[in-house]
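Can anyone check this?
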Amino acid sequence: MTKIKPMLILILIWAVSSFPNEKEPVEISFLPHWQPQAQFPGYYIALEKGFYKDNGLKVTIIPGGPTQPTIDNLKSGRADFISTFLTTGIESRASGLNLVNIVQLSQCSALMIVAKKASGIQVPQDLDGKKIGMWRAEFQLLPKAFIKQYDLNMEIVTIQNTMNLFLSGGIDAATAMWYNKYHTLINFGLDPDEMTTFHFYDYCDLNFPEDGIYCLEELYCQKPELCRAFADSSIEGWLYSFEHQAEAVEIVMKFMTQAHIPANSAHQKWMLARMIDLFMPDSSGAELGHLEKNTYLKVADRLIECGLIETIPPYEQFYKGRASYVKE
């Protein structure tokens, strides 16, 4: 039997013990701007199917919701990456927070204002003097721009995760997402013909892209490959969810159950279908994950006009993505 020299044994032991350490996954945290639902299937798919792991990441998805402001969690360092609206990203950067957009998923607005026709609200001017329910501050920029555009005097009432106050008549109107609360109202028994809806995508100067992925500029500058790995894996998860919608809904509902959130498969299917409409609109010409410079400037200019920001952060400093995050 051939004897292995002691030095060779030491080399083999060193090699075997060293290689696993080189492939230790990097631990990062991600906070979506709302609770687990089919608004965010790409991230849950990437976690469940091992896309993050394949790119050397160990990702913890922090459950979002009304009590988890994404910007605050990014500032504090509790979350390495967050999702939030483009308007919130621009406002935060303009206010001095050095965050960057690494993926712009949404290409048009899903935000809307809903009211009951029985309340006499038919056109924007009918909202004057009324009470409107809005979510926390980071979701109020676009509705406030709408209110300012029509010179409306409205009382803003902060609402959480239900439409109960609207349904009970405690407020006259409420903000809603096309893919979520609007469909929830229909499920509660309100016929679409009973509602007056103001879809912001119908107002060209307010049709702003929404969901994007953000991190602090410091992290991006220090670890660009880490940011790229998270972006690529997330996009891979989104594309998979679009191509395997039934499986995506099943995985999302698993995470909803774990977070003790009521899960309704029909509603989640509706939501996922709407996300496809918003992320990959046929007429936009934009690639999945890309933020066009002219789109960015249009949104920033509108925020300036509405007095919501004072300066426009340079596009090149704000956006750190690439034309397409689809893997070759």
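Reply from J.R.: I decoded it. Residues 224-243 form the longest helix (20 residues).
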